[in-house]
Write a structure and sequence with these properties.
Helices cover 41% and strands 16% of the residues. With 313 residues, the protein is an alpha/beta fold. Helix 1 crosses helix 7 and helix 8 packs across helix 12. About 3% of the residues have low confidence.
Length: 313
């Protein structure tokens, strides 16, 4: 890559919630994007977003490895659809599968000339926090969900020590006009149905709009320091109840809430979302801001306003 020339990029998870926004940011900035697709349907979605789809799976070696040696590699793992019971065979399998698929990708990249790898992990590996935001240097106390991701992070440290240029990005609760926010807040509020909340609604979380999240990942490819972790979150944590309250207020709809016990979250929400809905998850973004990153939607109100505008467009 010469000065002023956009880097070639390879993206996993490019047809997911975060990955779709990431591909959009990269293509708008002139990057040539190859994106791994595990089905013809995913390939069609990726092609429509401007990427060059590469059919294959991280579970198996294949032709996709020829494209994985791009200058920038973004490893964006989708969240599980349902939460397996803690300690179940499915949970143990998920942990082993993550380590195995990470190894296939990183071993492939290690043989090439990749300049930066942005590995997207999840902050739930830090476990429950207090209301005061923690930094990336805080000790890990993973929850049951986080313990399924911890082995992959431990293995990642070995690749970093070996010299791979890995930047680890840890988004907080990512929201936008899609995924959990659309399903659990936008659609119920607009339809006059109850928004389900689990346990106490005054839990503190660190949100980030999906477009800012995607922009931050690209920024970290350019300005992040190899071997470091970065929380990708807004500056101000908010409470879980504020997501629905702010949206309802902006669309001028009444907010109707149905409260369920915290234990119910694991049966109806994805693993990571269940963690955020039932525990404090408050993270500081001092390190990210120190790289020069600036938010387009620095507050929840600004981010939700963009969602409302996109609904009205």
């Amino acid at each position: 890559m010469t000065a002023g020339t956009p880097a070639t990029t390879f993206v996993t998870g490019g047809d997911g919630f975060i990955g779709t926004a990431l591909v959009k940011v990269l293509t708008l900035r002139g990057h040539r994007v190859w994106a791994l697709a595990d089905s013809p349907e995913a390939a069609e979605r990726l092609a429509a977003s401007g990427a060059v789809p590469v059919l294959g799976s991280l579970q198996n070696a294949g032709a996709w490895q020829d494209e994985a040696g791009a200058e920038w590699v973004f490893h964006v793992r989708p969240y599980l659809d349902r939460r397996p019971q803690d300690g179940s065979p499915r949970a143990a399998f998920a942990a082993r599968a993550r380590v195995t698929t990470d190894a296939l990708l990183l071993d492939t990249v290690a043989a090439g000339a990749t300049r930066r790898i942005v590995y997207v992990a999840d902050a739930c590996c830090y476990g429950s926090t207090s209301e005061r935001p923690i930094t990336e240097d805080a000790p890990l106390h993973p929850s049951a969900c986080g313990r399924r991701y911890a082995p992959a992070l431990d293995r990642l440290e070995g690749y970093i020590i070996a010299g791979l240029p890995i930047v680890t990005a840890m988004p907080g609760l990512v929201y936008g006009n899609g995924s959990w926010f659309r399903k659990r807040i936008v659609d119920p509020v607009l339809a006059g149905r109850r928004v389900i909340q689990f346990g106490r609604s005054d839990r503190w979380v660190s949100p980030i709009h999906v477009d800012d999240c995607a922009r931050a990942l690209v920024h970290l490819a350019e300005h992040g320091h190899a071997g470091r972790r970065y929380f990708v979150v807004n500056s101000n944590p908010t409470t879980v109840r504020e997501f629905a309250a702010v949206f309802a207020r902006m669309v001028n709809h009444p907010l109707r809430v149905r409260s369920l016990p915290s234990a119910a979250a694991r049966f109806v929400a994805s693993p990571v979302l269940a963690e955020y809905l039932c525990r404090n998850a408050s993270y500081a973004n001092i390190r990210l801001r120190g790289t020069g990153f600036h938010f387009v939607y620095p507050t929840l109100e600004q981010g939700v306003r963009q969602i409302v505008e996109s609904l009205n467009a």
